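<backbone_tokenisation>
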Amino acid sequence: MKKLNKVIVLVSLILSVFVCNLTAKSDSKAKKPTKLKVWSIWSADSESNKAPFLKTIEEFKAAHPEIEIELTMNEAEAYKTKIKTAVAANDAPDVFYYNAGGMLKSFVDAKKVLPLDQYMAKDDMNRIVDGAVANMTFNGHVYQLPYTMACSVMFCNTELFDKYGVKIPETWTELMTAIEKFKKAGLTPMAVGGKDRWPTCMYTDLITLRAAGYAECDKAFYKKPGASFKTPGMKLAAEKYEELIKAGAFPKDAVAITRDESEVPFYNGKIPMYINGQWTAANCQAKTSAIKGKVKAVRFPTIEGGKGDINDFMGGAAEGFCVSAKTKYKKEAVTLCSYLAENHSKNAYLVGAGIPSWKMKVDDSKIDPLIKSIVELTSNAKTFLLWGNTALEGNDSETLMDVVQEMLAGDINASQYCDKLEEILQ
């Protein structure tokens, strides 16, 4: 009997070990993290969004150990082709950065991105700033989540303005006077990287907004009924852009240099004016910046005879994160997408690289004064209009940037500029 009991005990032990091993293996398989691919821009150290985005990624990893992230950061210009190619081939990453407006719409029309509002709780959607998903909503559904309320402003090096006795311009006449004075002092008045095309559009968009006004720009950029690039306001904008070029406002090699290359002399305190997005504030205020504490962000000057208002801004929620419609892990991908958008919005704001597109509470004492001043400028905004090259779709966007580039190169005049842009509306 004792032997029998020993045998029973031994068998029980063996079975217990066997079952435990099976359970352990089962648990091991169950706990294997879901792997999600993420693509973004901001690969260069000079990108002000890089550090806060990487911080956001690490925060997500700590909060969601069940999800593994394979992150690929890309150079912005190369990324435009890379992501379009991947999406067309149904090989897009699970979560990816992209522009809103017409650029996003092409993916939506092709059913390449997920309608995020169908997978998110209402409370989560309600944390987004009112109106921030307007350029990301199509057919009643939200296909992208914003991480910033973007805007383009004019950054002025106050040290150079004071040194040469130049007034920060509030009108076009004052702007041309400032350009003339800086030119006489041997300075290049304004920075721009024409090779990348879109940085020059930052200038032309604001010029067009001030000359033609919000209503005409909105019609043209969204190809609405009655739109035209040949109205008196649009012609005035073309003439002012041409005037800026002929006045020598930009570097002589502007058409051949990238945005990064064009920014170097500005950050080194050699160029007094620069028009670009709010993310520029973080680089201006970086510890290594020669212009830290010397830059003032201002609204673009009004144009005499123009229809635009000084409180009309270009920008809005113009970019964000999407989820591929082909992802195998929709729930997890949407969780990641939402986390990245909301938390990068906070982290970028804290370092002066963005304006929040999500409702949040932050310690104002921790906010950089330059980005805070931009927030104050936009708090009085009358209108926000998405950048033309973002609002327009596909080939139309490319045409706009190409025409802007041709004028910068001196290949066309103001009249031809309007004629070529009008072809977008045909």
